[in-house]
Write a structure and sequence with these properties.
Shape: globular
Strand content: 25-35%
Radius of gyration: 25 Å
């Protein structure tokens, strides 16, 4: 493969190529799809100088491990899934630089409000071939993106050419604070289109009670569990087109909130529709999150959505003034540039200025840099080149921080959840448990399963030992890194 590309070392739970989707094809059975948090993708693209519809990576719950083969400017937006570049935390919502050989990994911390999806936008975008006018991945139809599927280990993604130089891109910033939807805020809905198919009590319950996002949620829709919604004359209806954000209710009375990647037609009554301005918040709900709803009228929905779109335009990003790398004034204040100043004198130290200095020194063959500027609060020591000691790679997305894997006493070890979801001790209700209390298990042996987004993932012992206790019940929801069971050392 020639040209610029990145390499997937580990794929994460579900990482896909996404843009803003396919429009105008519902009549042919092709859903619009695209990024489920479109504001995050649009603003990320603007930060790295791309058109809003440029393809990036949508990273869901547990992120990938990626190696970059060329210098590149990136931006991460959306949910904070614990991104680290060569072991250093990566800031969200601003551009940053990677060099050839750098690795980006993710280690989410879990907890309420973290969000479900992060977006990796790259200067130049991901240059897979478009299908029906979009580079986005349709997982249900199995087309678009990379062979119509989520990424796998060993995949190489071609990259486009950036629209500006690295220095210019690194100075781009959001003009206002990024959208940070609080998952506790209710989603705004317009009731209907089949409001008459529900009892008045069902409408009141729907707008009052919290519903929990099921682990069976996926990119198409979020299955919700909570109070049953009563129908006036059954759940059967003539199939019709489904709008993004529709909330349909099958015969069990449990609502399903459909995303931008929903199916194109359906035959269940729809109690309400999430407004356009809140579709991104819907796409960021994780399994286990609570969802609440509040009703507004069509006029209010239209005004809110137009305001949402206006905040994503070209004016959403500004460019900081250019600076030239050099020394600040002795007092630490910014130096005003003038024609009399020698070339290379800085007006101030900024992240972009430091990055520029590092690139210039590396290009000149310098192998070591130690930079301390007390007035700027800067202390930097770097080694690179043949004499450099390798930097230890950060733990991958499937690893758990060592601190969370240690129990409180002695050499007892903890078995922790590799991702959030529902924990099961059996492969099926009629099957025996994977492991019993007081049983000796080997390193890597499965002791249970976690179900999330209609997929199952083994929970394994980190080392050999005797299984002494389970700290969660069979069928209980667990968070990433939560202690599930404990091991004592194996008998000598």
């Amino acid at each position: 493969m020639t040209g610029r590309f990145l390499t997937v070392i580990e794929p994460g739970l579900q990482t896909t190529v996404q843009d803003l989707g396919r429009t105008g094809l519902l009549r042919y059975g092709v859903t619009s799809g695209g990024a489920l948090d479109q504001a995050a993708l649009i603003l990320g693209n603007r930060l790295v100088g791309n058109p809003p519809n440029t393809a990036g990576l949508e990273i869901t719950l547990v992120g990938p491990r990626i190696r970059f083969d060329d210098p590149l400017v990136l931006a991460l937006t959306g949910a904070d899934l614990g991104a680290r570049l060569n072991g250093t935390p990566v800031p969200l919502w601003q551009p940053f630089m990677v060099d050839a050989g750098d690795e980006l990994v993710f280690q989410p911390s879990g907890g309420d409000g973290a969000g479900a999806r992060s977006y990796l936008c790259l200067a130049g975008g991901i240059a897979v071939e478009p299908v029906m006018g979009s580079r986005g991945t349709d997982l249900f139809g199995q087309f678009g993106g990379l062979a119509g599927r989520a990424l796998r280990a060993g995949d190489k993604l071609p990259l486009g050419e950036p629209g500006a130089g690295h220095d210019d891109l690194l100075r781009r910033r959001l003009a206002a604070a990024p959208p940070r939807d609080d998952p506790r805020d209710p989603l705004r809905v317009v009731l209907g289109p089949q409001r008459d198919r529900f009892t008045e009590r069902a409408i009141a319950v729907f707008l009052d009670a919290p519903y929990t996002v099921s682990p069976k949620a996926d990119r198409m829709g979020l299955r919700l569990t909570g109070p049953m919604l009563e129908l006036t004359r059954g759940a059967d209806a003539i199939s019709e087109g489904i709008h993004q954000g529709s909330i349909q209710v099958p015969g069990d009375g449990q609502p399903i909130a459909l995303t931008r990647a929903r199916q194109t037609i359906g035959g269940y009554p729809k109690i309400a529709t999430v407004i356009g301005a809140d579709l991104d918040a819907l796409g960021q709900l994780r399994p286990g999150d609570d969802a609440r709803f509040t009703a507004i009228d069509v006029g209010g929905a239209r005004a809110a959505t137009l305001d949402y779109l206006a905040r994503l335009g070209p004016e959403s990003v500004t460019t900081e003034p250019a600076v030239t790398t050099g020394w600040p004034s002795p007092a630490g204040a910014a130096v005003t540039a003038s024609k009399e100043e020698p070339a290379g004198m800085a007006t101030e130290w900024t992240p972009a200025a430091v990055a520029h200095l590092v690139r210039e020194l590396r290009a000149a063959g310098v192998g070591y840099l130690k930079l301390e500027i007390a007035s700027a609060g800067l202390k930097l020591e770097l080694r690179w080149g043949a004499a450099a000691e390798p930097v230890a790679a950060e733990s991958t997305s499937s690893d758990i921080d060592a601190d969370s894997a240690e129990a409180s006493a002695g050499s007892t070890m903890a078995i922790v959840a590799p991702m959030l979801g529902v924990f099961y001790r059996r492969a099926a209700p009629e099957q025996p448990p994977y492991a019993e209390i007081n049983q000796t298990v080997e390193a890597g042996q499965a002791v249970g399963l976690i179900e999330v987004m209609k997929t199952y993932h083994e929970v394994t012992a980190p080392s050999a030992g005797v299984l002494t206790e389970f700290l969660v019940e069979d069928g209980q929801f667990v968070e990433y890194g939560q202690v599930i069971a404990r091991l004592d050392p194996p008998p000598s």
